[in-house]
Amino acid sequence: MRLENKVVLITASTRGIGLACVKRCANEGAIVYMGARNVERAKEIAKELNSNGAKVKVVYNDATVKESYKTMVEEVVKAEGRIDVLVNNFGTSNPKVDLDIKSTDYEEFIRTIDLNLASVFLTTQAVVPHMAANGGGSIINISSIGGLRPDVSQIAYGTSKASINYLTKLIATQCARDNIRCNAVLPGMTATDAVNENLTEGFKEFFLKHTPIKRMGTPEEIAGTVAYFASDDSAYTTGQIVDVSGGFGMPTPVYGDMINLSMKR
Known about the structure:
lipid metabolism; NAD(P)-dependent dehydrogenase, short-chain alcohol dehydrogenase family; single chain; 9 helices; alpha/beta
């Protein structure tokens, strides 16, 4: 119950990592607000969780309607008087058009960056004055290992996530005086519906060849790190960019080939 009675707002929270964060924070005692475009779907989820003793509520947020970031925050503050934890979970990419520098359309490049950065910048900008007035808080940005390791594709997504990593450090630096912490969690390949729908089995196999822990992560494992940053256990930790990727990209670049060779001997 590390998060007992803390007010937690989580964006893009009806599936995948966002939903896992909702469940984990609720299980640790938080009052959790699901920021969601599909309000009816979110209400169904909240009803089911609340029937088991959770305290989950729903607030409207649509990443394509930028005004909804501010109204989302204001609605939660009006209802609860504060927001203790913000989890900026929204992120988007279309692998079919987000390709390399030669092939990606500029408008698509800017659109992806704009959506992903706005989700962090605007929500954080809206919540910081309320956190400061309440004595502090914790902001957690869900980034990606793709923001650390340059890829052969998804140039817009990687650029946006690298920017979020830097923005995390800026927020941590600028808001520390108000006792507001900001950290980023960088998932590697995680077993979500989005991954299963957009990535081929061949790509997943290739990716995992370079991951020392030879499997995809689970949304629940990402949520565990989020819960740590949401809790007072991390009260002296800020500006950190934490890789939760099973070690992807950590060893020598020829790791995958070396492991395959050693297994054949």
